[in-house]
Design goal:
The chain has 419 residues and is α/β, with parallel strands linked by helices. It has four domains: 96 residues, Rossmann fold; 66 residues; 166 residues, Rossmann fold, CATH 3.40.50.300; 57 residues, Alpha-Beta Plaits, CATH 3.30.70. Helix content is 48%, strand content 21%. About 4% of the residues have low confidence. Bound molecules: guanosine-5'-triphosphate (GTP) and magnesium ion (MG). Guanosine-5'-triphosphate binds next to helix 7.
């Protein structure tokens, strides 16, 4: 198992409401998800990053000693490094040194399953690598400093850069094509007026568990970060008969690297396009308020922070002190408590979803001629039939139907509206 020394940094110049311990703990969780052991996790407070080493020479030398003493193979920093900083650190410490984004990219690469997911991850990885190649040339020339190093080194880099940049273009093209397919599917849903509900939330909050509990989707669930990368859509029929689509998507994280959001734009578009968001929040987590804040900052970046939203306060089964619940309910507007795992209170959640869409459904009574059984079938398929009577003059049917569909039916002269 890879043994890692974690370094959690707080920059005095940085505006971040998270406490240092919390950032440190999350860095550990990310490390574990990568399959490495966090041998030690040291914290340090710096004024501002230095261009060469990020954390300053003295601190770097301390790290080198500690890394040697503890026998680690990798050093992981909580902040993003430039190519130059990374290489200089590696040189002084003598161990592989990576930053938080690389850690997240590694997890993403492990968990991507669909062609789209894999393409998005590769794109993010290359975009991360590209600007870091530049510094490599500088280093090659500095280290080699003689005949035969500078030229070919730089030339090789130029070739690498060109190759990578070609590959980036190709991946972007692939994504555009995949996105087109997605748009077609979405358009079809829109034409059929099928509302969509997106499950969103911090990673590990229980989004996939909730999707499984509602729809038997068979989505992978695990107590680790970023288990889900590929969005999944599932059709679902609400108790009032309305058909909806529920989607599960990639989880959010505090300080989610911006270019990861960029690379995952297509996936995250599902969020922006949804008619309703269900924010799944793990209330058993100590940082529940911080998670909420992080989710909203990603939503803001996606310009989806004004969408109708229900907060599902999840994992109530793990909460010992129930007095907390009252406070939480007060703090989160339009919220309710559930346990996705134990399927508790899901009826109330469905009711709340229904309330949100109530204006889309309409209640009516129709008389359909016997010759149009196809329309009766349609009513069963798209609506919720409450009563049906086969009369001599036709089929009397009382039901709930999506408004758009009822308008279409009422345009048909063969159909009589009773009420
Ligand atoms: N006790 C309890 N555990 C839950 C509940 N809901 C989810 N979990 C557990 O929380 C962990 C994460 O659940 P997931 O459904 O994978 O979470 P997610 O939000 O989809 O996470 P990512 O896909 O990784 O972003 C799993 O171990 C679940 O079994 C709940 O209501 N109660
Ligand atoms: Mg999931």
């Amino acid at each position: 198992m890879e043994r890692a020394l974690l370094v959690t940094i707080k920059l005095k110049s940085e505006k971040d409401s998270w406490r240092l311990e919390d950032v440190a703990e999350e860095l550990e969780e990310l490390t574990h998800t990568c399959g490495a052991e966090a041998v030690d996790n040291i914290t340090c407070i710096c004024d501002k990053p230095t261009p060469n080493l990020f954390i300053g020479k003295g601190k770097t030398q301390e790290l080198a000693l500690l890394a040697e003493e503890e026998g680690v193979n990798t050093v992981i920093l909580s902040h993003d490094l430039s190519g130059t900083q990374q290489r200089n650190l590696e040189e002084v410490i003598g161990k592989k040194t990576i930053d938080r984004t690389q850690l997240i990219l590694d997890i993403f690469a492990r968990h991507a399953r669909s062609p789209e997911g894999k393409t998005q991850v590769e794109l993010a990885q290359l975009q991360y690598l590209m600007p870091r190649l530049v510094g490599k040339g500088v280093m090659l020339s500095r280290l080699g400093g003689g005949i035969g190093t500078r030229g070919p080194g730089e030339q090789k880099l130029e070739v690498d850069r060109r190759r990578i940049s070609k590959r980036i273009d190709k991946l972007k093209d692939d994504l555009r094509r995949l996105r087109q397919h997605r748009l077609t599917m979405r358009k079809r849903r829109k034409e059929n007026a099928i509302p969509t509900v997106a499950l969103i939330g911090y990673t590990n909050a229980g989004k996939s568990t909730l999707l499984n509990a509602l729809t038997f989707a068979g989505q992978t669930v695990s107590d680790s970060l970023f288990t889900t990368l590929d969005p999944l859509h599932k059709s679902f029929v609400l108790p009032n008969g309305e058909h909806i689509v529920i989607s599960d998507t990639v989880g959010f994280l505090h300080n989610l690297p911006h270019h990861l959001i960029e690379a995952f734009k297509a996936t995250l578009e599902e969020v922006v396009e949804a008619d309703l968001l269900i924010h799944v929040l793990d209330i058993s987590h100590l940082r529940v308020y911080e998670h909420n804040q992080a989710v909203f900052s990603v939503l803001k970046e996606l310009q989806a922070d004004k969408k109708p939203l229900i907060t599902a306060l999840n994992k109530i089964d793990l909460l010992e002190d129930k007095t907390w619940l009252e406070q939480l309910k007060k703090d989160f507007h339009n919220s309710l408590t559930i346990s996705a795992k134990l399927r508790q209170n899901l009826d109330s959640l469905l009711e709340k979803i229904q309330e949100n869409f109530v204006s889309r459904m309409t209640h009516l009574e129709l008389l359909i001629p016997h010759s149009r059984m196809d329309l009766v079938d349609l009513c069963y398929r798209e609506g919720k039939v409450e009563e049906i009577k086969y009369l001599q003059k036709g089929i009397k049917i009382r039901l709930n139907l999506p408004r758009v569909l009822s308008q279409k039916l009422l345009h048909n002269r063969e159909i009589e509206k009773i009420s």
